[in-house]
Amino acid sequence: MIRTMVALILLAATAAAQSTGEKQQVMWQKLEQAVHDADHDLDGVLAVAVTDLKTGQKFGLHENELMPTASTIKIAVLAELYHQTQVAQQGGAWPHAATLTTQYIFDPKDLVPDSFILGGLTPGVTRLTLRDVATAMIAVSDNSATNVLIDRLGIDNVSRYMESLGYHRILLRRKMMDLAAAKAGRENAAAPAELSALLEQIYNGKVFDKALTDDFFKMLSTGKDSAFNQSLPDGVRIADKPGALEGVRNDCGIIYAARPFALCVMTTYDRRERDAEHVIGQLGLRVYSIFDRLGRGSDLGRTISVGNSSPNP
Questions:
Q1: Nearest CA to 287 among 248, 268, 259, 266?
Q2: Where are the domains of the chain?
Q3: What are phi and psi of 194, to 5 degrees?
Q4: What's the fold here for domain 26-296?
Q5: Which of 45, 16, 50 is nearest to 30 (CA)?
Q6: Which three-class secondary structure state does DSSP give residue 47?
Q7: What are the CB-based long-range contacts (under 8 Å, 24+) for 114-120?
Q8: pLDDT for 83-126, tens place per residue?
């Protein structure tokens, strides 16, 4: 009798778990449909990688395709800055390591177009830390700031570090605004799956210590001019880096919904860049809506908002 009751309880628990899993899988199917709808709406080529940071579940569309990064490559540059900082903090033997506290005095020879911060500094006088320089690179995508970091870090060191983490399709091959290199085919490129995996690995504390991990995502949260930021509700934390070139629009980062997730959306051959930005923003909003409900809902999907006073509980 007791064995029969235990068996029935286990059977009921298994059935309930399967039911819960089926409902959440329906939500994932809706996520997949949102990606396919975006692909249909874009007059260009779309590549997407989505990662549930709670479970590790992933979905992608052309996610392993090598795409032009534009400024999203700055995520890799930032990672190398934090890497060299961590090595130095741990007493590693790295001559001339560039760290967050390394000093930089502004030199006008470092200026290239689209440098909204460094372009206004006083030559030979203004002194910054490389963390300040990185803030300009991320917050307003200052290209001169990016090139200063690439010079201090070493372009080959960025590539080697990505490879050491297992990412062979995150490729920094030129400095910002180097049109000659771009015309010669040395375009910065990455696969969305690898950029998403890099962010996931850092988020899970497998790359930097906790203090540097927190600071890394604090840095990535400084930018506000992205398709994700323009489309998601006010107050949602977004740690991302957009990118824009002619015929190219991208946005990659972590969105802190009630259930955080990594999302990397990359487009190329865009007929109209403004339309591509709209597609990216709307896709971000739809994916956010799904993860927000998954995070706030119970196993059965019931959501109880703060201050709920429904007369029919």
A1: 259
A2: 26-296
A3: -75, -40
A4: Beta-lactamase (3.40.710)
A5: 50
A6: strand
A7: 114/141, 114/142, 114/143, 114/176, 114/177, 115/142, 115/143, 115/144, 115/145, 116/140, 116/142, 117/142, 117/145, 118/142, 118/144, 118/145, 118/148, 119/144
A8: 999 999 998 767 778 999 999 999 999 999 888 899 899 999 99
- Enumerate residues 6+ apart whose C-beta is below 8 A from 126: 105, 106
- CB-count burial class (<10 Å; 0-12, 13-18, 19+) for 34: buried
Structural tokens at position 199: 């962010």
For the chain, how many residues are written? Answer: 313
Cα–Cα distance, 273 to 270 (Å, whole number): 6
CB 118 within 8 A of CB 111: yes
Task: Please report how many Cα atoms fall inside a 13 Å half-sphere around the Cα of residue 207, on the Cβ side.
Answer: 28
- Determine the Cα–Cα distance for residues 273 and 257; give it in Å rounded to an integer: 27
Q: What is the DSSP string of 2-44?
A: HHHHHHHHHHHHHHHHHHHHHHHHHHHHHHHHHHHHHHHH-SS
Token pair in block for residue 95: 């001559």
What six digits make up the tokens of 50? 């989505």
**20 pLDDT tier (thresholds 50, 70, 90):** low
DSSP 139: H
- Could you tell me the pTM of the whole model? 0.90
